[in-house]
Amino acid sequence: MNIGLLSLALVLSILLFFVLGLPVAFTLSGVAMIFAFFVWGPAAFSTVVHACWGSMMNFVIVAIPLFILLGNILQHSGIADLAYDMIHKWMGPIKGGLAMGTVLICTAIAAMVGVVGAGIVTMGVIALPAMASRKYDSRLAMGSVMAGGALGALIPPSIPMILFAHITTLSVGKMFAGGIIPGLILAMLYITYIAIRCFQNPRMGPAVPPEERVNWREKFVALRGSVLPVLLIVGILGSIFSGAATPTEAAAVGVGGALICAAVNRKLNWPMIKLACYDTIRLSGMVMWILVGAAIFTRFYMGMGAAHLVENLVMASELSPWAVLIMIQLSLMLLGMIMDDYAVVLIAAPIYTPIIVALGFDPLWFGILFLVNLQIAYLTPPYGFALFYMKGVVANRSIPMSEVWRAILPFIPIQIFGLGLVMIFPQLALWLPGIVF
Predict the structure, then answer these.
(1) Is the dihedral of CA 257, 263, 266, 272 positive or negative?
(2) Which of 364, 300, 351, 297 is nearest to 324 (CA)?
(3) Nearby residues of 328 by Cβ (< 8 Å), 6 or more positions away
(4) How far apart are the C-alpha atoms of 220 and 299, rounded to whole Å?
(5) DSSP, res 223
(6) Half-sphere exposure for 210 (CA within 13 Å, toward CB)
(7) pLDDT tens-digit map of 54-112
């Protein structure tokens, strides 16, 4: 079958099963196996076995369940509560301070666990009621939680970043270093937007009334809430950048640190560990199924000549390399609107990265751009995972999904602006890896 017609048939089949509600992993693997059988015959199933085996035999993959376990332990250890109490006391007197502080805490959570859902769920449970009680605009409150939580896709130790490095054989450590500055820039852009909106309209984020503010002594006492998160972040990222541990080993260091943090907060008990392990198994199972399904799909599609098709189309076009780069990123945004982020990485990364290299761009820089695009995908309906996490948090408050969508809309142009900055100034992503490594 012609590879162009085959590509069209594959895309239409996948979209059909997505619309019917079939899980991503089984859609990708099932469609690939059916097409492979009709194209290659029974011999295709040996390819399935090799794809499954190969996708599970990389040492880097071990970091995924470890970081997920780390996030679940922290979610139940009380660290986020202490950190938010500190933010409440320091930034509460500022207009919009609680929303800005929420973004800061989400950034810290992202730097500890690398999972988008951890920041959104944790701060949704802690920060949303606090902002609601202060009469914050509900859209601003939900938007700050979702935008801040989505930083987990870019700020190390990001699990999508680990997957991208695994697929493209790039250095995980360099990817981690490359995501730090763009992630912090996006966090500051969110905070700046919140500050401007609340300055223009103080009713969107009222300051804490004077009678509820604390003195300087209590503020400095509250700084204790930042000690454990800072130590954990330094332990994870410091062990990687110093060369003392690989990213996988650093994940184990992080789990050990999270258990110590839970013990310090007197939350280390068997029910908490049991719940954290259960949630880890459930989420890790989902990730691994998607990994296997995407590996099967990618092995078949690449075997049929997909990479050559895309490369030939790009090279035969009269578009400039920058125009091709922009088109690739637009396609990533569209894929993210209808597909799981892990599936986007596993399908698009092996196809697009060789094209980027052939066009003369730095693959590490493209990897950071790729992840910023994934961050946009997390925030854009209809499939944006951040929206579903938020809907789960506010499910008992009768807030419709349409209201959640409206809450995130102002933050999407900010995300695109941040993407443009990293495109125009590649050193934002490349300077720190060059210094550290």
Answers:
(1) positive
(2) 351
(3) 352, 355, 356
(4) 56
(5) G
(6) 0
(7) 666 666 667 778 877 877 787 777 777 777 778 878 888 888 888 998 898 888 888 87
